[in-house]
Every structure is written in structure tokens, then in C-alpha cells.
């Protein structure tokens, strides 16, 4: 019982403010976790990197914006392909993630640049980009209508928008296994709500369509994308103790509670473990649209 109370206090004190404020979250615990886990996350989400890069038109002259670029993986992947200096730009609100993105670009001498800014409000040069893309970086807006309208202003005539976003939590049970398993021990982990900014905010296809239409985009095409993802089994505990709501709570939890939660949660992942590999299906949307001409 004492353990339960301890966990409850921990959550109330440390978790709720971060969930209310995306900038705090991505400059704090979530951003740190993504920086520390960059190589592992890039491995897990590699299939999406390939799909996104292959999905967009890209010539040396194409000017590209990667929204919510994080540690720069997709920005760098596309910059390697386009190989023209200064034409691939990533934007993100997270300083620590951008610091790693810049370091990676410098280390591998890849021509990508990065902007620290909120994609909803940042004053991009009007009509600057031919392609605007994102891998899991557009679901965290407080005001998604405003964000897509702002991105539309940054888009050249007939520019292409292409992003990948998660479908619902129900269709992605791997992603919520930790919080479901830990719920009896951590009753106050905030429930994920589909109507608020976060991983599953774009689950509703009709809502996404309406947001894009209102934001000035046309030729909207939203199709389901089910992708097999893997991670090494040896990294599973590190993955589940650093990411998501449970990962964040665990950073502040006392050692006995932490040990108990990890044991419980790890057991719940057993059905995804196949020898040395963890496998799960990621249920996502692949979204395409075109900048609507101003006259329409
Ligand atoms: C799930 S991570 C994805 C990172 C990267 N696209 C990738 O696939 O590795 C979401 C990213 O969106 C960024 N983000 C959230 N809200 C944002 C906003 N309003 N403007 C710009 N970036 C934002 C976060 O800082 C974070 O880097």
C-alpha cells in the first residue's frame, strides 16, 4: 500500500505538467529519452524512414522541410539523397534533439540545416518549400489547423505534403502494453486521450482530412500503413523504461517500485518476443496532400 502511495505522489508531482506542455516535454524527459535512444529508435522506425524518403519527389533543386525532425534522421536521409547544400531543413521545438541533429549533420558532412521553432507559429519564408514531410512529428500541435495553415504559407505553389502518423491506440497495442500492465501499480498514469496532442492525436482519419482541408491543402490522400517493426530483445527493457508515460514515471520512482513495475511490464511484452528479436506491427497513416492554389 505504501508503495502505491509513493508511486501516486510521484506521478502527481512530476508527470502531469509535462503532458500539458509539449515544449516542456520535448525539451525535458521525452527529448532526453529520444536523444539517448536515437540509435535504437532509428532502428525500430527505419522502415518508415525508407517509406517516407521514397514517397516524396526529390531532385537536387527540391527544397524540403522536415517537421518535428527531432534528432534529424529523416532530414539527413533526404539530404543525403538530394545532396544540395541548404535545401533540406528540419524544424523542431526540442533543443536537445536538434543539438544531436546538428552534430550528426556535421559529423557526416551532410548538407542539412535545422531551425529551432514551433511549426505552428514559426515565420517561415513564404513559399519556401517544395516538399514538406514528417515522420511522427505532426501529432503534437495544440492547434493543428493553425499548424497546417502555417505550413501551407511556407509551401510553394503545388508543394507536396507527406507525413506518417499513428492510427489509434487500440490498433497499436504494443505501444500501450507498458501502461496497461503497469496500471494496477501506477493508477494515476494519465490516460491517453485521442482528442489531445500526442502520439494518437491523428487516429481519426476524417479529422485529419478536415484539418488539412481547413489548413489550405488539397488532393488529400490518407491510406493505412501497417509496418512490421523490430528491436533486439536485449534492448526491450531499456526501451520500455525510457519511453512513453511509464518510462517517464519510472525516472522518478523509488527503486523497489521500479523493480516491480519493470518485472510486471516486461512479462506483458512476452508475446512480442521471438528469440532474440521483438516484433510488432505499427498501424499508421501515410498522408499525402498538395498545397491548394490561393484562388481556390
Ligand atoms: C515522436 S518525435 C519524432 C521525431 C522525428 N520526426 C523522428 O521520426 O525521429 C516528435 C517530434 O516532434 C517535435 N515537435 C512536437 N511539437 C512540435 C511543434 N509544435 N513544432 C515543431 N516540432 C514539434 C518533438 O520535439 C519531437 O522531436
Could you give a quick summary of the protein structure above?
The protein is an alpha/beta fold and 296 residues long. Helices cover 44% and strands 22% of the residues. The chain contains 14 helices and eight strands.
Task: Give your account of this protein's structure.
The structure is a single chain. By secondary structure, the chain is an alpha/beta fold. It is 44% helix and 22% strand. The protein contains 14 helices and eight strands. It has helices at residues 2-14, 16-20, 22-27, 29-36, 38-44, 46-55, 73-82, 95-107, 144-154, 173-182, 205-214, 236-242, 244-250, 255-268; strands at 64-67, 88-92, 112-116, 129-135, 155-166, 217-232, 273-274, 277-291. Helix 7 links the parallel strand 1 and strand 2 (88-92). Helix 4 (29-36) runs parallel beside helix 8 (95-107) and helix 6 (46-55) packs across helix 7. The chain starts with a helix and ends in a 5-residue tail after the last strand.
Keywords summarizing the entry:
single chain; alpha/beta; 22% strand; eight-stranded mixed sheet; disordered N terminus; 296 residues; 14 helices
How much helix is in the residues?
40-55%
- Structural class comes to alpha/beta
Q: What is the N-to-C order of secondary-structure elements (H for helix, E for strand)? A: HHHHHHEHEHEEHEHHEHHHEE
Mean pLDDT: 89
Query: Gyration radius, to the nearest Å?
Result: 19 Å
Low-pLDDT residue spans = 1-20
Amino acid at each position: 500500500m505504501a508503495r502505491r502511495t509513493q508511486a501516486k505522489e510521484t506521478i502527481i508531482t512530476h508527470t502531469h505538467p509535462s503532458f500539458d506542455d509539449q515544449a516542456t516535454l520535448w525539451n525535458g524527459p521525452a527529448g532526453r529519452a529520444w536523444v539517448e535512444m536515437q540509435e535504437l529508435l532509428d532502428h525500430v522506425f527505419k522502415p518508415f524512414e525508407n517509406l517516407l524518403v521514397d514517397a516524396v519527389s526529390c531532385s537536387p533543386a527540391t527544397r524540403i522541410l522536415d517537421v518535428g525532425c527531432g534528432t534529424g534522421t529523416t532530414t539527413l536521409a533526404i539530404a543525403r539523397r538530394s545532396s544540395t547544400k541548404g535545401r533540406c531543413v528540419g524544424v523542431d521545438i526540442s533543443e536537445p534533439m536538434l543539438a544531436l541533429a546538428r552534430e550528426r549533420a556535421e559529423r557526416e558532412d551532410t548538407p542539412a540545416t535545422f531551425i529551432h521553432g514551433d511549426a505552428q507559429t514559426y515565420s517561415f519564408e513564404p513559399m519556401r518549400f517544395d516538399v514538406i514531410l514528417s515522420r511522427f512529428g505532426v501529432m503534437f500541435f495544440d492547434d493543428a489547423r493553425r499548424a497546417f495553415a502555417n505550413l501551407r504559407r511556407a509551401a510553394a505553389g503545388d508543394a507536396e505534403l507527406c507525413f506518417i502518423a499513428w492510427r489509434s491506440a487500440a490498433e497499436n497495442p504494443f505501444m500501450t502494453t507498458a501502461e496497461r500492465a503497469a496500471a494496477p501499480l501506477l493508477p494515476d498514469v494519465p490516460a491517453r486521450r485521442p482528442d489531445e496532442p500526442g502520439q494518437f492525436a491523428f487516429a481519426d482519419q476524417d479529422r485529419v482530412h478536415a484539418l488539412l482541408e481547413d489548413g489550405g491543402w488539397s488532393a488529400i490522400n490518407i491510406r493505412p500503413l501497417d509496418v512490421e517493426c523490430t528491436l533486439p530483445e536485449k534492448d526491450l527493457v531499456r526501451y520500455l523504461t525510457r519511453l512513453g508515460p511509464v518510462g517517464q514515471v519510472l525516472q522518478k520512482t523509488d527503486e523497489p517500485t521500479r523493480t516491480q513495475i519493470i518485472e510486471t511490464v516486461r512479462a506483458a511484452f512476452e508475446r512480442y518476443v521471438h528469440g532474440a528479436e521483438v516484433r510488432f506491427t505499427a498501424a499508421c497513416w501515410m498522408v499525402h496532400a498538395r498545397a491548394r492554389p490561393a484562388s481556390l
